[in-house]
Specification:
The protein is an alpha+beta fold. It folds into three domains: about 5-65; about 75-175, Orthogonal Bundle (DNA polymerase, domain 1); about 190-330, Intergrase catalytic core (hpI Integrase, Chain A, Orthogonal Bundle), CATH 1.10.443. Helices cover about 45% and strands about 10% of the residues. The strands form three sheets. The protein has a four-stranded antiparallel sheet. A three-stranded antiparallel sheet has the order 5-6-9, with no helix packed on it. A hairpin with a 2-residue loop joins strand 1 and strand 2 (about 10-15). Helix 2 (about 75-85) packs antiparallel against helix 3 (about 90-105) and helix 2 crosses helix 5 (about 145-165). It is elongated. The chain starts with 6 loop residues before the first strand and ends with a helix. Residues about 1-10 have low confidence and may be disordered.
């Protein structure tokens, strides 16, 4: 039976010595949801050591900085945070992306096994530095600064919630230094290349889809999820209301990325003409397929009506580029081509922002900064033309 020598610790709880010689203290740290006292324990080799722990805890309770001792590790907390806080609010594709990063890069690392309350900024900094140097899952080098920032964003969000719940005092992600942001390079096609490419693929089955993308700047998921009910052929406008995504090998329709992504885009008249011809051909496919046709009202679909497979579509696009002698670009670069051509034609960046569905104009300006020097030069030329109309000093003073 344990030998107990009880003494009050500043009027809170008790301190006693166990039969094995260790000292233990208990204090009340609050009340649970049913109003019952919540207590926590401290132990040590000497009574003085335990008394110091108790005094520190009581002081933190008074200042509101006390953190209830818990052995929850970062990996365990990330599981809880994802399941209880993120799963209900994230789009399925975003949720899967978060999960992939956590399971691939964070929880297998040493930092995943550290208890939340013990994580220091230096632990995170070493983790980021190691990932930057040799963090790829395949062992072939380090992660990009962009991926390090993705990881950081996830950890920042998880620890922010941990602070709210009183599991940690501060969010240590705010005290680290991130690698310099590197702008992702992209290659828009020139006007000449666009014309050459379109002429080369005019007889291809995906010509209407590629033509529409160059005339609307749709993301690939938005293009493949476009429905005829969202196409106003009379007024030459399409409306972005959903996006196609693949989750665990299964396709699904989901809400656009943001409220700004839900938008209306005017379309050139000749593209509308091509869409009408495409719709007529699609109606013939429906008749041939009969009851086997799965009608999702999609503008671009498989012969049986089901959504196009993203990877197959991209591979076909790459083949078309190669056959046309075009530079190797991603399908997403057609979106960049659309924006670049508009800006080069003198369209206001705010209008381009709205058409692309960017949340802020700063994103548009930052992404397409390569076009800005030419716009500045054009603006200077316009101003020069205005100023040239002024009278010279001799004209002003002469008779």
């Amino acid at each position: 039976m344990a030998k107990k020598t009880k003494k009050r610790a500043n009027g809170e709880g008790s301190i006693y010595q166990r039969s094995n010689g260790t000292w233990v203290a208990q204090i009340t740290i609050g009340r649970d949801s049913e109003g019952r006292p919540k207590r926590t324990s401290f132990s040590g080799k000497t009574r003085k050591e335990v008394q110091e722990k108790v005094n520190k805890a009581l002081s933190e309770l008074q200042t509101g900085t006390f953190i209830e001792p818990t052995k929850t590790t970062l990996a365990q907390w990330l599981d809880t945070w994802m399941e209880e806080y993120k799963k209900p609010s994230l789009r399925p594709t975003t949720y899967e992306g978060y999960n992939f990063i956590i399971k691939t890069h964070i929880t297998p690392a040493t930092i995943g096994n550290i208890q939340l309350r013990h994580i220091q900024p230096s632990d995170l900094q070493r983790f980021y530095n190691a990932k930057l140097e040799s963090g790829r899952a395949d062992g072939k080098g380090g992660l990009s600064p962009r991926m390090i920032r993705y990881i950081h964003a996830i950890l920042h969000g998880a620890l922010k919630q941990a602070v709210r719940e009183g599991l940690v005092i501060r969010n240590v992600t705010e005290a680290v230094t991130l690698p310099r942001h590197q702008r992702k390079e992209f290659t828009p096609l020139t006007q000449e290349q666009v014309i050459k490419f379109l002429n080369s693929i005019k007889n291809d089955k995906f010509y209407p889809a590629i033509l529409l993308d160059l005339g609307s700047g749709l993301r690939l998921g938005e293009l493949l999820a476009l429905r005829w009910q969202d196409v106003d052929l009379k007024n030459a406008v399409i409306r972005v209301r959903q996006s196609l995504a693949s989750v665990k090998g299964q396709w699904l329709f989901q809400e656009p990325k943001s409220e700004k992504s839900r938008r209306s885009i005017p379309i050139p008249k000749d593209i509308i003409t091509e869409l009408k011809a495409h719709k007529a051909r699609q109606n013939q496919e429906k008749l041939l397929a009969g009851t086997a046709y799965q009608d999702h009202d999609l503008v671009f679909a498989m012969p049986d009506g089901n959504p196009l497979k993203v990877r197959s579509f991209q591979e076909h696009f790459e083949k078309l580029l190669s056959n046309a002698g075009m530079p190797r670009v991603r399908f997403h670069d057609l979106r960049h081509t659309y924006a670049t051509l508009l800006l080069e034609a003198g369209e206001h960046p705010k209008v381009v922002q709205e058409l692309l569905g960017h949340s802020q104009i700063t994103m548009t300006l930052d992404t397409y900064s390569h076009v800005l020097p030419e716009l500045k030069q054009a603006a200077a030329a316009k101003l020069g033309n205005i100023l040239q109309k002024r009278k010279s000093p001799s004209q002003v003073g002469g008779k």
